[in-house]
Amino acid sequence: MTSEPDSLGVMQRMWRRIQLMSSWGRVTFCDDGKTAQLLQVKLNDSETRDGTPRIAEFGFTSFPPNGSDVLMVFMGGDRSKGVVVATGHQQSRPVGLVSGESMVYDLWGKSIYLTKDGGIVVEAGGTPVTVNNATTVTINAATAVEMVTPVLRVSGDIEAGGNVKDSVRTMAEDRILFNTHTNGSGTTTPTPQQ
Q1: What is the residue-level pLDDT of the chain in tens, covering all 194 positions?
Q2: Tell me, what CATH number does 11's domain have?
Q3: CA–CA separation, 4 vs 10, rounded Å?
Q4: Which domain holds residue 101?
């Protein structure tokens, strides 16, 4: 039969292990060159861990800036077997989202914002947006596609299945005017040969 002092010692050791199972810290260095991202994490003034693997969600990756908060989990309370399971950077985190909204963002203000009522908003922060290696880019818009830009550049052909128009008339209407124009002397010129 176990004596009471031995039981108390077991309970104290178990409680200590439970306390050691998780910890907050701050990123002081990140190595993103391997299959697992490795962080240097400062847990307190006397404990800094090098080469701590970060476990992130599949399909999403990021490089947490120095000073980011981390939550570490230690398997069985063993401080030699820690992994980072969450990161956050308070200074750059966008605020004011409403229930159900999501945003992918970076340190410089660029974001993809899935809003409740305002659609999907891409904020490029004054930088280029590039789509690489697509065979086809399809936009299925129910009402319109609007481009507000001083210049629209296209390196290849433009094909239209419907009317092409400016603020005056359609290209089809311009074609009718062109095909029936006169040469200034009152005679109709021959129809252009396409």
Answers
A1: 555 668 888 888 888 888 889 999 999 999 999 999 999 999 999 999 999 999 999 999 999 999 999 999 998 888 888 999 999 999 999 999 999 999 999 999 999 999 999 999 999 999 999 999 999 999 999 999 999 999 999 999 988 887 888 888 888 887 887 777 666 666 666 655 54
A2: 2.40.50
A3: 10
A4: 93-129
3-state DSSP assignment of residue 128:
coil
Give the residue from 129, 157, 180 where a domain finishes.
129
Domain count along the chain? 2
Q: Which two tokens stand for residue 141?
A: 């818009």
List all residues 6 or more positions away from 60 whose beta carbon is below 8 Å from its beta carbon: 104
Closest CA to 70 of 85, 80, 56, 82: 85
The distance of Cα 76 from the centroid of its chain, to the nearest Å, equals 34
3-state secondary structure of 175: helix
SS (H, E, C) 131-165: CCCCCCCCCCCCCCCCCCCCCCCCCCCCCCCCCCE
Query: Within this chain, do residues 45 and 24 fall inside the same structural domain, yes or no?
Result: yes
Determine, yes or no, domain membership for 190: no
For the entire predicted model, the pTM comes to 0.74
Residue that is last in its domain, among 32, 61, 88: 88
| Tokens linked to 22 | 């998780």
Same domain (yes/no): 114, 53: no
